[in-house]
Structure formats: structure tokens, C-alpha cells
Automatic annotation (TrEMBL):
GO terms of molecular function: ABC-type transporter activity
Entry's transmembrane regions: 20-40, 158-178, 198-221, 233-254, 266-285, 321-343
Record-linked Pfam families: ABC2_membrane_3 (PF12698)
Membrane topology: Multi-pass membrane protein
Name of the protein this chain belongs to: ABC-2 type transport system permease protein
Originating species: Kutzneria kofuensis
Protein localization: Membrane
InterPro entries associated with the record: ABC-2_transporter (IPR052902), ABC2_TM (IPR013525), ABC2_TM_bact-type (IPR047817)
One cellular component (GO) term of this entry: membrane
Keywords: Membrane, Transmembrane, Transmembrane helix
Calcium among keywords: no
Signal peptide (residue range): none
Top-level taxon of the source organism: Bacteria
Ranges where the ABC transmembrane type-2 domain occurs: 107-346
Length: 348
């Protein structure tokens, strides 16, 4: 117990003395949270801007959808030029009953959105003008709480990515550095078991993850961003521990393979960045190719992201932890076993 406590305290002190490690562990992921939160946190920022020439019931109906931001301009030529320049995704001209829509196909998502909205509004206006009742009615409602904002879907993903980055980088660089300075060799000669060394480093990883989570949630809950936690938010704590175990096992594997800090940093970057994108950290994967979605299912970060959103945002209960917990534990066992097979106390 004394050896475990001494090693844990020494590792905590060593970690917090490294300014570079503190930056990449706390400040860099927090910067992403702040940037994405400011960009997507405002509902007005999510509206599609459209340049409009003229006025009438179609433009009034478009403005009433709440999904577009109308910008009146002097001439249609000027509006079309703004579309060509990429300043706005679309422009509309209203001359009596004739409506012209010009859009930029280079942005397929915005183009499809604008065509669908304008087409729907024009059809609705035509139906209203005909005086006939609609043959088919649509009852459309959102399934989430109306108070949900973009920050509530951004925070779990970026928090999980921050946990992965600090756990993998921290454990990998610690192992490589200790082997290079022959700290591991001295520990091996001392009356300290391998389990004590690994468990003390794991305690540092989990402790750092808890501090990261507290900092992230505290910043996201400020009035600037307005994060609101679901009722069973505490279920994120076991996920945080299981996720840290998975990422720690990856870091130990990288630290066992790499012979220098530069090599460990390079290998870790090759793992962390693609895993973040393939796990839906920064954007949803629903529109990705099926084979890419299948690949993402084997990544621990994907399951941690999904489970964090379920318990922090969607208000799901303990039943949401079953599959993610099983995947994270299985991943830890497999990768941890591989790391134990290639681990070495000294450079060969």
C-alpha cells in the first residue's frame, strides 16, 4: 500500500509539473468545446441565409419557418453573384407569381435544404390560394425536450475525445520516458510488483479523467453555453472509468512498442485523430458509408460517445450502459493482453 501510494503521488506530481501535458489534457479539448459551442450554440447561427429580391406571401411564409434568415438585396444579379462567391447558399427573386431560385450546388447539404424548404412553402402557398382543403395532413413533432441545444450534443463527444487523448498520450509517453531514463529498470529491481506500477499509473489516468469531466461540465453549464444535464447524469461516471481503462490499455500498448517519445507521439496521433472522426466526435456518422459505420463499431470511443449522449442528454437509464460497457471491457482485455506480450522493462 505504501509503494502504491508513493508511486501514485509521484506520478500525480510529475503530471501536473508538465505544462505541455496540462495544455494537451485540459486546455486543447476545452478550446474545441468553446469554439464549437460558440459556433453552434446560437440557434440563429444555424439558420440558412438567403438573399431575397421582392416580397409577397411566399417570402412571408419562408420567414415564418424559422429555418432561414431572409436578407433583402437591391437586385437579383447582385444576389446571384453573392451565391457564386459563396457568401450565401441561395437567392430568390419574386416578381408577381413568378419565383426564381438560384442556389450553389457546391454545398449539397445547403442546396438540398433550401430547395426542400422553398418547394414546400411554394406548394403550401399554392394550396392555400386554391381554397381546397389538403388531402393529406402531416403531424410533425420533435422527440427531444424543446430546451435541448447544440452544446448538449457537443459536450459528450468532445469530453470523450479529451479523455481518450489524455489517457493514451499520458500512459504511452510515461512508459517510454521511464524506460529511456531507466526508471522502469530501477522499479523492477525494487520490491515493487508490476501490478502496483500499472495500477498507480491507472489511478493517475482515472483521476485526470475525473478532473477533465468536472472542468468540461462546469464550463459547458455556464450561461454562455447553457448545458443542462439529464436526470441520471451520474451514470456517466462508470462510463468515464471504463473508457479510461480502454484508452489506458491503448497507451500501454503504444508505450510498449515505441522506442522514443517522438515515435510514441506519432503512433498516438495516428490512432487518436482517425478514431475521433470515425467515432462521430465532431459530426454524426448516419450519412457515412455503411462499411465506415461498421469500422466505427469496433472503436471504444464510438461506444463511449454514444453512451455519454444517452445518459447525459437523452436521459436514458442504466439499460443504456449494457452494450457500451461490454465493448469497453472486452476491448480493454484484448488490447491489455496484447500490451503485456510486447511490454519490456528495458530498451533492447
Amino acid at each position: 500500500m505504501t509503494a502504491f501510494k508513493s508511486l501514485s503521488v509521484a506520478m500525480f506530481k510529475g503530471f501536473f509539473r508538465e505544462r505541455v501535458a496540462l495544455f494537451f489534457t485540459f486546455l486543447m479539448p476545452l478550446m474545441f468545446l468553446v469554439i464549437f459551442g460558440l459556433i453552434f450554440g446560437s440557434s440563429s447561427a444555424n439558420k440558412t441565409k438567403i438573399d431575397v429580391v421582392g416580397d409577397g406571401p411566399v417570402i412571408t411564409a419562408l420567414d415564418g419557418t424559422g429555418t432561414v434568415e431572409i436578407q433583402h438585396v437591391d437586385s437579383f444579379d447582385k444576389a446571384v453573384q453573392a451565391v457564386r462567391n459563396g457568401d450565401v447558399p441561395a437567392a430568390i427573386s419574386v416578381q408577381g407569381n413568378k419565383i426564381q431560385l438560384r442556389y450553389a450546388a457546391s454545398d449539397s447539404v445547403a442546396a438540398g435544404t433550401v430547395q426542400a424548404i422553398v418547394g414546400s412553402v411554394v406548394d403550401g402557398t399554392n394550396l392555400q390560394a386554391s381554397g381546397k382543403p389538403p388531402a393529406i395532413t402531416l403531424d410533425s413533432q420533435r422527440v427531444e425536450d424543446s430546451s435541448l441545444t447544440a452544446i448538449q450534443f457537443l459536450t459528450p463527444g468532445i469530453l470523450s475525445w479529451g479523455l481518450a487523448t489524455s489517457a493514451i498520450f499520458g500512459s504511452a509517453l510515461t512508459l517510454v520516458n521511464w524506460r529511456k531514463k531507466q526508471v522502469l529498470r530501477r522499479i523492477r529491481l525494487a520490491p515493487v510488483s508490476t501490478g502496483t506500477v500499472i495500477s498507480s499509473r491507472l489511478l493517475v489516468t482515472i483521476g485526470t479523467s475525473v478532473l477533465q469531466a468536472i472542468l468540461f461540465v462546469a464550463v459547458a453549464m455556464t450561461p454562455v453555453f447553457g448545458l443542462k444535464l439529464a436526470g441520471q447524469w451520474w451514470l456517466a461516471l462508470p462510463l468515464l472509468v471504463l473508457g479510461s481503462l480502454s484508452f489506458f490499455s491503448i497507451g500501454v500498448l503504444v508505450g510498449s512498442i515505441a522506442k522514443s517519445e517522438e515515435a510514441a507521439t506519432g503512433i498516438t496521433n495516428v490512432i487518436v485523430l482517425p478514431m475521433a472522426f470515425l467515432s462521430g466526435t465532431f459530426f454524426p456518422l448516419q450519412n457515412a458509408p455503411q462499411w465506415l459505420q461498421t469500422v466505427s463499431e469496433v472503436l471504444p470511443l464510438r461506444h463511449l460517445n454514444d453512451a455519454m449522449v444517452d445518459v447525459l442528454v437523452r436521459g436514458k437509464g442504466i439499460e443504456a450502459l449494457g452494450v457500451p460497457a461490454a465493448v469497453l471491457i472486452g476491448f480493454t482485455i484484448v488490447v491489455g493482453f496484447a500490451a503485456s506480450r510486447v511490454f519490456s522493462w528495458e530498451d533492447s
